Amino acid sequence: MYSRVKKFLSLSFDEKLIFVEAVALLPVIRVVLRLFGLRGSQRFLGLAALGRNIDRAELGVERISYLVCAAANNGLLRANCLERSLLLWSLLRRRGYAADIRIGVSNEAKQFKAHAWVEMNGVVLNDRLDVAAEFAPFSGAIDLSAPASKLRSMQSREYGAP
User: Fold this and answer.
1) Buried-most residue among 9, 13, 32, 143 (CB within 10 A)?
2) Is residue 32 within 8 Å of 40, Cβ to Cβ?
3) Based on the number of CB atoms within 10 Å of its own CB, is 22 exposed (0-12), middle (13-18) or buried (19 or more)?
4) To 10 degrees, what angle do helices 13-49 and 81-94 make?
5) What percent of the chain has pLDDT over 90?
6) How many domains, in total, are found in the chain?
7) Residue 96 is part of which domain span?
């Protein structure tokens, strides 16, 4: 416990703000995700970021990603990959960065698994750089503003599903 407090106190003021913002936003994301699903959550978080362009000169995307991961692992709630990705995507968007949420699927060992992560300019920010080797991502960032029927037809073309 003492080492966590010591680490937090050693952060810069801007880093502390991002960490606290991430810890506070995570329960909101969890509730919004359960109430409105992925598409509605991204719309809600996108609207919350409108008109904001926090100065991003102080911290780079890698540091923001690190702080979000730390908040997701050490806050009141342990976040799953989708919650963590929505959190990072939202905080980056509020700072004017254009990042994308990627979703991939795996069917290894006859067990279906899905995973979410954030990319910017094709670089994975909050996961292993080779995450796409284990989880086959959809061909592009998922456009959550598209109607669900369009998403299903895109998936059908991609994976040959009916």
Assistant:
1) 32
2) yes
3) buried
4) 90
5) 39
6) 1
7) 2-159
Q: Which residues are paired to 115 by β-bridges? A: 104
Model pTM?
0.77
71, 74, 76, 80: CA torsion to nearest 10: 70
Task: Give pLDDT, residue 142.
Answer: 56
Q: What letters, b where the CB count within 10 A reaches 16 and e where it falls short, cover 95-110?
A: bebebbbbbbeeeeee
CB 99 within 8 A of CB 46: no
Q: What's the pLDDT tens digit per position in 87-120?
A: 999 999 888 888 899 998 887 777 888 899 999 9
* 139 CB-near residues (< 8 Å, 6+ apart): 154, 158
Q: What span, in angstroms and rounded, lies between the C-alpha atoms of 85 and 81?
A: 6
